[in-house]
Amino acid sequence: MQDVVEEKLLGVSAFDSEGVTELLSPPYGVYNTAKWRCLETKGLRMATTTRTRRRRRSTAQRYLANLRTESPGHSYVVLLGLRTFDTAGLLERVKEGLSYHTWERLRLNTELPSDALRALVQISPRTLNRRKEEGRFHPDESDRLLRATRVFASALSLFEGDANAARRWLTTAQPALGGAAPVDYAATEVGAREVEDLMGRLEYGIAS
Length: 208
Fold this sequence. Notes:
By secondary structure, the protein is mainly alpha-helical. The chain has helices at 2-10, 17-23, 29-67, 87-96, 100-110, 114-121, 125-134, 139-158, 163-170, 182-185, 189-203. It folds into 2 domains: 2-48; 73-203, no CATH class. Helix 8 runs parallel beside helix 11 (189-203). The protein starts with a helix and ends in a 5-residue tail after the last helix. Helices cover 68% and strands 0% of the residues.
């Protein structure tokens, strides 16, 4: 009986009302109802994951499209969910403090491990929790968020929008950085500039 029910369930769409009616009728009984709810929940989770991945792809595509324009400005901020591309406007946003929402967008778009991202932005779990409650980062923290985003965006550009390749490179030890991983090296402004210089040399095929 269980095999028959599961076979039927897997063949029924969540929007197939006739199929659902049949499955919830005898002889399948209560077991069928519970199993349907389980698969329906799983289906919703899969749909949400698919939408999230598509959103991340579209964000990366928008960033790359902005790079191709004549005046891309600070186009990398799309990875934070921002639409302020000019320097003056961005400076104002930093002075005000970026919203906590920008952290969530960066985390989703980079998919870097939480500890690696916190280290890159130089923010502790306790401070991050406080900023979540307050809803906004301090100016210096906002500046570091921008720096982390800029570095990831540069890696994304280097690998032509391939976020997986960008993430692997950033978290892998690089001889040109003394054996350090770029994500660790870029935790300071000086280190971030060195990582960006390295990516620039690699993009133009200059041996490092």
